[in-house]
């Protein structure tokens, strides 16, 4: 689980000391940048990156114990 947390933080460009707000902020920024609708010329890569950051965000917010109890 610790390895998955590290991978998820790295996918969002964050370090291990990141807060829940840092995760949310990084995800929003990257989601806007890499959303497939905003990158029709590079749709395949945008889909891959967007899926990666979305899964990382979901893991950190819902599945990880890192931020349990924080809002």
Descriptive keywords:
single chain, 71 residues, mainly alpha, 65% helix, 0% strand, elongated
Structural class designation: mainly alpha
Strand content: under 5%
Q: Termini, distance in Å? A: 21 Å
Number of strands: 0
Name the average pLDDT. 92
Taking pLDDT < 50 over at least 5 consecutive residues as the criterion, the unreliable ranges are none
Shape: elongated
Helix content: 55-70%
Q: How many distinct helices?
A: 3
Radius of gyration: 12 Å
The description of the largest β-sheet is: none
Summarize the helix and strand pattern as letters: HHH
Brief summary of the model shown:
By secondary structure, this protein is mainly α. It has helices spanning 2-11, 20-34, 43-63.
Model description:
With 71 residues, this protein is an all-alpha fold. It is 65% helix and 0% strand. Helix 1 crosses helix 3 and helix 2 runs antiparallel to helix 3. It starts with a helix and ends in an 8-residue tail after the last helix.
Topology:
Blueprint: H1 2-11, H2 20-34, H3 43-63
Helix pairs in contact: 1-3, 2-3
């Amino acid at each position: 689980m610790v390895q998955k947390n590290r991978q998820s933080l790295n996918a969002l460009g964050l370090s291990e000391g990141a807060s829940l707000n840092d995760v949310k902020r990084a995800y929003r920024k990257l989601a806007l940048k890499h959303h497939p609708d905003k990158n029709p010329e590079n749709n395949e890569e945008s889909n891959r990156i967007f899926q990666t950051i979305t899964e990382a965000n979901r893991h950190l917010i819902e599945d990880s114990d890192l931020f349990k109890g924080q809002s």
